[in-house]
Design goal:
heterotrimer, A alpha/beta, B alpha+beta, C alpha/beta, B: alpha+beta, FAD/NAD(P)-binding domain, D-Amino Acid Oxidase, Chain A, domain 2, 3 domains, nine-stranded mixed sheet, 16 helices, 23% strand, C: alpha/beta, Rossmann fold, four-stranded parallel sheet, 11 helices
Amino acid sequence: MSDTKMIEEDKQAVYSGDHCLSCTSCMANCPVMAASLEYRGPKLVAPAHGRMHFSQDDYEDSLDFCSNCKSCDRACPSGVAVSTLNMLMRGEYYRHHPHSKRDDMLAHGERMAKLVSAIPFGSTFANLGTKVSGALGVLSAMGIAGQRSMPSYASKTFYRQFKDIKQPKSDKKVLFYPGCSINYNEPHIGIAFVKVMNHNGYEVLVDEGMNCCGSPLVVTGYLDEAKEHADNNVSRILKWKEQGIPVVVCCTSCSLMLRAEYAELFGEQRMEDAAENIYDAFEFLEELMSKGELKTDFKRVDKKLIYHVPCHLKTQGIGTPAVSVLKQVPGVEVELADAGCCGISGNYGFKKEKYDISMKIGEKLFERIKESTADDVICDCPTCRMQIKHGTQTDPCHPIEILEEAYR
Amino acid sequence: MEHATVIVIGGGATGVGILRDLSMRGIDTLLIEKADLVNGASSRYHGLLHSGGRYAVKDQEAARECIEENKILRKIGRSCVEPYGGMFVRLNSDPADFEDAWVEGCRVSGIEAKQISLDEAFRIEPRLSKNVVSAYMVPDAAVDGFRLSWQNVDSARRYGGRAKTYEEVVGIITQNGKVKGIRTRNAFTGLITKISCDILVNVAGGWAGQVAKLAGLDVGVQPDKGTLIAFNQRICNHIVNRLHKSSDGDIFVPHGSITILGTTSMSVDDAEDTSTARDEVESLLAIGEQTFEHLRDYRILRCFAGSRPLYIPPGGAVGRSASRGFAIVDHGEQDGLEGMFTMVGGKFTTYRLMAEKLSDAVCKKLGNTMPCRTAEEPLVPEVPEEERKEARSYFPSYGTDLAATRLGPDRFKSVVRRLKQDPEKRELVCECENVTRAEVEEIANEPSVHQLSDIRRRTRVGMGTCQANFCALRSASIFADCRKGRQDDAAQDSLAQMKELLEGRWKGIRPVLLGRTIREMEMTRGMYELLFHVNGGATK
Amino acid sequence: MIKSDVIVIGGGIAGMVAALVSARNGKRVTMLTYGEGTLPLNSGVIDILAYDQQHHYVENPMKAMESLPEEHPYHRIGREAVEEGISFFREVMGANGLPYAGSFDRHLFVPTAVGTLKPTSFAPRSLAGSRVFQGRRKIVVVSVRGLKDFYGSIMLENLKKELGESRSYEVAVVDPNLGGGRDITTQDVARWLESDEGRRNFVAQLRSRGGSDAVFIVPQVLGLKDGELSEELEERLGAPLVETTCLPPSVNGMRVQRILIDALRKAGVNIVENTRVIGAKVKGSKAISVTAEGCARKKEYTAERFILATGGFYSGGITMRDFDKPKEVVFNLPVSFVKGEAGWANDKLFSDQPQGFAKSGIRTDAAMRPLGADGKVVLENVRVCGRMLAGYDFCFEHSGNGVAISSAYKAARE
């Protein structure tokens, strides 16, 4: 890219449409376009509209098809934040149009989860409830893909389980941000992370004052609410930054939101400052490794793994740190699935009318996994894991679980 | 022999304005243009609809005319005017006393100039230099010279007005000290046609001197070249003027998704000289970056130049009527050639007023007493909202409004019909300016279209971000398809049309081949020289 | 700090070939990429050299190479590396189902979407037009209903001028029934043909238009992956099928891209996507590390050797914010260029001489190491390849992928 200063360094997506050369790389690499003839294609939605931003107030009908998987952003040779522009446009649309009940529910998973976890046996009832309403077709009537099962709630949230862990005190500290999925649905991943960090001499802290990163809100067009989440989270991250304590994240969609999308969407300098303090879990571990500080007292784990690298990790520009770390474990073999987007893209694949597109996008990955001789599927993203489970009947785990096993 | 009561020579803004004015007064009028409409100064300027602020100190009469005409054009040409409003900013290096004189000048001329706080200025124009020390808002606007001129012709047609393009006047027929008619030559066929008339109006702009010469007359016109730069993005949301003594490179005008920076001023020998050079670009950038510091970081789309026709009266100093900016010569009075008028000078903003004055003179001669109505009646009727609503399902986002303003109600209706009947026509030929296949086909079949660049000017195909990279192939192919079977039609040689379109773009790109513009050019060349091999020599 | 033996900067065709050659030589390779390279725009055929500096067509590229001006990168790369590099590339493609036809000493001809015949040295079988034009009297241009960017009748008119009036020409329209939604691209049609039903349908619609002396000319739609579909369809139609070059996205360019990425993964290359390299640490005449921007934080990558394949102006390897001040963005290497307006660009876009600006780039020695103005090597452990090399206008002379592949091969081998 050109050696421009200010304009290019501006992380805000809103002006980045101006860099578009119309080269079509975004269209050539868009998984939704490949699966659907209705989506006009990335550059023809918000980037095109963005260029006329000041003079027109019309909306592109097919905007709704963008899944925010960010394949376009990665393909773009000109630095256009294509999908974030789409999300900005979607947010703008919903400032003037009502949301459906379904979107409200999909966007506000945290609200529901908080409610459920506050009541004794709440999770049991809630899980039963979603199962029953699934069976009765209530969810389907709302516009949720009936083929899918909703993520079930853990009986005890991560934050609650965390309180029971006896950690060794240490000067080396990290703050762990579990995100909604690990906190409410899959706390065992968070526990595995804590164990891995403890093993490496780190004390893990948590901050229950942080809330949902806002990713489900952004993709569903609740931009103002997402901004409230961003403001709160950024203030807290900055406080930890002041104390020299990095914030580490296991969910790659959360980390992408915290470290990139906030600044792209809302364009505030403090968001960029906070972003510098966010680490993907394996990125952090890989850095320890390159400094020679990662514990290598691994036990042998004879496992062949197939790794689906989430789109939102690829977008972070840090490569595949889980591969370089797990490769150190004797017996572990990691092959990359390298089959593109899985198709679910957060809550996209849960929408009834997007289900077929979502499954069609995932076909290549499903096939690849089914053909593979690997023992286990690994993936850092909770919704990707759900999609893989749904499409292949395997039970994928987070790569941190493998590392934790090796340290056991 | 073909006849018209009045023949107007020159298809610029003034010419089409006169065509409309006279036609509305019931006078049979024919406009003759040697190329396509609006190919001279009327499209080759920054597209600023002056509030008059720029003349508030130097020439308050011109300033008053500007603000009055500005108000009229906003009313009659709604789809041609982007009413962004203008800002005058003074930098800390600009003399402060000029500001006082300017504020007073605006007051005297009736221009509403409202001072705003610097905080407000930076809020609405975040990229403005922090060296700005004071800012005012004025009612400037952006105006599309192409569209405004075509709409004048469309309007004139409804009153029986006629226009012929690609017909060059090669002779003026006179008899006993009176104009009788003209001879024209067709640009494509070379065919000579004689047309008789009672009155001949010469508004050929920079070419007015050459036209007058055909009648053995001498009209002093000095072409003055102005170079401008078009940037690929909205640098500002308002027209931004430097608040100082008018000079080069101090006006930024946003248009749709681009911004135009202008302009230089340089006397040239020939009105055809629209060449541009690196040093002109460099000097524009050097001045422009005082107002917008990051100017060089933006991608330049292209640069272009136009010639302002400055009038030099016989034996007089340049700009006799400088206060009014334009001059009407009645050659009957001045040279003893009855029935011929020449008008030169002036500015785009006041084109309608100029046309009115000249039409008044013509009417007086013809004994026509109809009043001028061009200030009251809109150029074209609005496209009704219900038609837009239906069209929205066929167009991409915001394409409907773009097409509606581009096409006007009649063509829009016809294009929407095409889109409705055949979904394949919804294909986007130009993805930058949202031009559908239906629109290109509609325009390609118009009698005034002879080559691909005529379609470009009418639709904006090839004028957006990709500078014709994608639409050169598409539009050339559709053009050839539409004109199949027409003998000797330029459209048949699709490769030549494609190349001509791209060479036309190149002319404006060549002097601004900097980093980002080169990116685009590498893509163009890769596509047309390598993918399509249109620059191949013989391979045998 | 991530350590590797070799770091390749740039993921276009040059970067990928350099990374693959390095990895197959047993090196630990990391490839840093930002955006797609030009393969989605590029037909993926290998032009070596089709026009000399006077714009005369050359029959034999390898021979004509010898009389190129001294500054030309082919003189650094050398005949041997050109042959080896391109042979290497052909092997990789051939092993993955996309065999390239052609030869080093004469051209084959690829039909373009506008109906011209483009000379090139190597092309996938499906694009290699000249293999089938000889002796075929019936030319059937297949246009696809709803497909934007392919205009059968225009192509036919121009093709007639190239192949002569003595043959018969017709347009056959195939309807894939993809209409009703957005604009249809070659990728969409290629996807349709990847389904059994699509192929059955395609064959049924075209069968009656063939014949023993017919040839079908189709847009670039014969499958997204390799050359398999084109062979199958030829067999079923009983007549050869030739693909044309098309407006981007280029299906064939993306076939090549897919195959190279697969090969890189298999060879163990660590690919880091979406990371822009913005600078380097240098000690004396040795590069120590490069600095890349990921999300929010900069990251350093160290290696013994760096292969720079960041491209020219298009891909941003070289930028120029101000006239006469081009800049190489990673190592700040000296850029060779024509100063002043006169030599920078020609009057015509489609010119009979090379464009000055297009020759801007980095000069190297025969080991592809960057040179300073004094002709001395600037950085011992940096190799430069691809579009950023100085001294050639790939559009004018038709040498793009030839220089890219062979210079990358040499950069990785030296």
